[in-house]
């Protein structure tokens, strides 16, 4: 899994996987989407969906996405998907912005949901 890159703003995801793969820890959900977009434009493919889970982009402050370098293969579908995810995120922020702060227990619940999405995909990659 040395070529897999995990982009996250969830410190629990970072701590769990930082020794197993490249993990980029960022400040916000939006930052994660933008970094993933940059990687996809740099010939990476998405290993996880940028909007995985049943939570809307304005309901959770945490997001983790895994990508993998694919060289010269066509990744047009991934480019279109990440662009659509950013557009959707921005639309939801206009409708009802993500709260700046959550109670600690609620924040931890959101981190757990995000972590569980990644935990479910990692065994499939090994």
Account of the protein in words:
The protein has 126 residues and is α+β, with helices and mostly antiparallel strands. It has four helices and four strands, in the order E-H-E-H-E-E-H-H. A four-stranded mixed β-sheet has the order 2-1-4-3, with helices on both faces. Helix 2 runs antiparallel to helix 3. The longest helix has 22 residues.
Question: Short description, anyone?
Answer:
By secondary structure, the chain is of the alpha+beta class. 49% of the residues lie in helices and 13% in strands.
Class of secondary structure makeup: alpha+beta
Envelope shape: globular
Residue share in β-strands: 5-15%
First-to-last CA distance: 7 Å
List keywords for this structure.
126 residues, alpha+beta, four-stranded mixed sheet, 4 strands
Helix and strand layout, with pairings?
Elements: E1 5-8, H1 11-17, E2 22-25, H2 29-41, E3 44-46, E4 64-69, H3 76-95, H4 104-125
Parallel strand pairs: 1-2
Antiparallel strand pairs: 1-4, 3-4
């Amino acid at each position: 899994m040395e070529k897999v890159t995990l982009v996250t703003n969830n410190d629990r995801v970072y701590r769990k996987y930082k020794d197993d793969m490249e993990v980029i820890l960022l400040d916000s959900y939006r930052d994660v989407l933008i970094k993933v977009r940059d990687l996809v434009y740099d010939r990476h493919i998405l290993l996880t969906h940028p909007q995985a889970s049943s939570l809307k982009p304005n309901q959770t402050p945490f997001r983790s996405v895994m990508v993998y370098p694919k060289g010269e293969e066509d990744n047009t579908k991934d480019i279109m998907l990440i662009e659509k995810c950013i557009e959707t995120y921005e639309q939801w922020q206009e409708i009802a912005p993500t709260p700046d702060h959550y109670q600690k227990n609620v924040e931890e619940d959101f981190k757990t949901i995000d972590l569980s999405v990644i935990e479910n995909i990692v065994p499939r990659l090994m």
